[in-house]
């Protein structure tokens, strides 16, 4: 059950990189709908992606610093010794599971579900969930707080400024169709 700040989720790199989805994840965390967790390895990968996509190193480091400043308890430490003990289909993902174990997280939010088999994660009582399903669960369980977080996200969206419908469209473009549809079909957006 995703119902409070006590619910901890490790955010994999592929859910942190797209700006619009990261914004929604961070606003939900700001509203205490869950507690985000990440590691230096995850942010190293995020930095590599930002630079590969054309951002300069200073701006990439600034974005990482802002995330760590906004959520100072999110950075998982002292997980590195667990990495070699784990066996996953993609060995490069072991650091994500190690961070989840170390932080006693409830789940890993990722769009690469196949890289985190349940038969391995079950041993650590860690679930794996897609970003879209994670966000829909949060909205479904906490509709008032979720819509407040979404409204504040819309009001603070600059460069470029977007209204709620443009943001919903951007969420769909990023593959978060269930999330955008849930906001729309539940009538949450129409109550503004």
TrEMBL record:
InterPro entries hit by this protein: PIN-like_dom_sf, PIN_dom, VapC50_C
Source organism, top-level taxon: Bacteria
Domain PIN: 8-113
Sequence ranges assigned to domain VapC50 C-terminal in this UniProt record: 132-181
Protein name per the record: Uncharacterized protein
Lineage of the organism: Bacteria, Pseudomonadati, Bacteroidota, Cytophagia, Cytophagales
């Amino acid at each position: 059950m995703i119902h409070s700040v006590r619910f901890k989720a490790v955010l994999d790199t592929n859910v942190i990189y797209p700006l619009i989805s990261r914004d929604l994840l961070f606003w939900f965390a700001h509203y205490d709908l869950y507690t985000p967790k990440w590691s230096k390895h995850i942010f190293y990968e995020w930095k590599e992606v930002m630079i590969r996509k054309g951002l300069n190193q200073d701006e990439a480091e600034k974005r990482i610093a802002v995330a760590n400043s906004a959520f100072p308890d999110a950075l998982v430490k002292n997980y590195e010794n667990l990495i070699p003990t784990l066996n996953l289909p993609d060995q490069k993902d072991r650091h994500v599971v190690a961070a989840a174990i170390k932080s006693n997280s409830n789940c890993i939010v990722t769009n690469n579900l196949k890289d985190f088999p349940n038969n391995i994660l079950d041993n650590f009582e860690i679930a794996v969930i897609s970003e879209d399903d994670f966000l829909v669960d949060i909205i479904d369980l906490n509709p008032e707080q979720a819509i407040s977080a979404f409204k504040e996200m819309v009001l603070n969206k600059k460069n470029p400024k977007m209204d709620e419908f443009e943001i919903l469209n951007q969420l769909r473009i990023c593959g978060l169709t269930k999330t955008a549809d849930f906001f729309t079909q539940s009538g949450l957006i129409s109550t503004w």
